Amino acid sequence: AKANGRGRVEMFDAALRAELEARARVEADIRAGLARGEFELHFQPVMTVAGGQLHSYEALIRWQHPERGLVPPNEFIPLAEESLLICEIGRWVLNSATKQLAAWTHADPRSHGGVTMAVNISARHLASRTLLDEVRHALGESGLEPTRLVLEITETVVLDEPTADAHLRELRALGVAVSLDDFGTGYTSIGQLQNLQVDTLKIDQSFLRSNDEATQALVQLMVTAAHAFRMDVVAEGVETQAQLDRLGEIGCELAQGYFLGRPRPARDIVVGGLSAASG
Ligand code: C2E
Ligand code: CA
Ligand code: CA
Ligand code: CA
Questions:
Q1: Which positions make up the signal peptide (predicted)?
Q2: Residue nearest (by alpha carbon) to ligand 1 atom 20
Q3: If we measure between CA atoms, which residue out of 87, 117, 121, 88 comes closest to residue 100?
């Protein structure tokens, strides 16, 4: 029995070591990818439901991997989130996204002067002491007004991290807006919304998938509550005209989804007659 137990420990050891090594390899690969400029942002528009006008963009990261091709965020962000690597990625995203919006604004102030840029920020990054400085740096370098930047965070972030709330206050004092992503999928109740440091609510796309009356009533409730707390509401994952019409009926003013525009690289987005990719 003793030898058996020992064997198990050794097997566990080997498995653990193999996993740690695999993880270290991917981390090194991501770090090298950052250094080699393999990451790129795709931008998806958020449109007004009533007028069909461009309201903002959400920056979504992709990894143009030399062997694996275009790698979606779900295949590397979760791993990066387990270490400080996510802060490095977040810093790169902040700098690139603000630079891109500044370039578009310069190319066509009329169409883009009032447009904002939303960037996804992970829990660990929001908790870090350096985020505020990094946001200031990105705004300073790009010359963008703080009000043109929106940080998208998920609800687990806001509730679980004691420092997150303090950091959100500092960021909002700077003039940056905060958006609560994937709302309805976590633990935040509608009542808790009024205590959160949040300007915009993004209703998770799963709510648009089901057509039953109960779900529609929930969406209506979220929209009404958000407005009562003076928040804007974005419906995510709009794929059909019928869904868009329904959002108009219940007073949801902003929408994002394949029906309105897919995420695209800057070189494919034409602003002021030019493709103003910032490089
Ligand atoms: P998310 O923040 O909820 O972003 C929305 C996701 O839904 C995006 O997937 C987008 O391409 C997709 N989407 C948009 N409209 C539709 C639609 O009409 N139908 C469907 N089926 N999907 C739609 P993507 O780009 O693969 O990103 C997945 C997740 O990865 C994001 O979810 C976000 O949590 C994370 N992510 C993306 N970029 C970043 C980043 O720069 N930093 C961090 N920390 N996370 C990121
Ligand atoms: Ca998001
Ligand atoms: Ca979302
Ligand atoms: Ca998500």
A1: none
A2: 237
A3: 117
Angle at 159 between CA 78 and CA 139, to 5 degrees: 70
User: How many other C-beta atoms can be found within 10 angstroms of the C-beta atom of residue 158?
Assistant: 22
In this structure, what token pair is assigned to residue 106?
Answer: 């310069």
- b or e along 232-255 (b: 16 or more beta carbons within 10 Å of the residue's beta carbon)? bbbbbbbeeeebbebbeebebbbb
Does the pTM surpass 0.90? The reply is yes
- Indicate which atom in ligand 1 lies nearest the CA of residue 90: 42
Name the pairing type of β-strands 69-71 and 149-154. Answer: unpaired
Query: Per residue in 37-89, pLDDT tens?
Result: 999 999 999 999 999 999 999 999 999 999 999 999 999 999 999 989 999 99
How much distance in Å is there from the Cα of 181 to the middle of ligand 3?
5
Query: Which atom of ligand 1 lies closest to the CA of 256?
Result: 15
- Cα separations (Å) of 199 from 17, 129, 180, 267? 44, 22, 8, 30
- CA–centroid distance, 59 to ligand 3, in Å, is 12
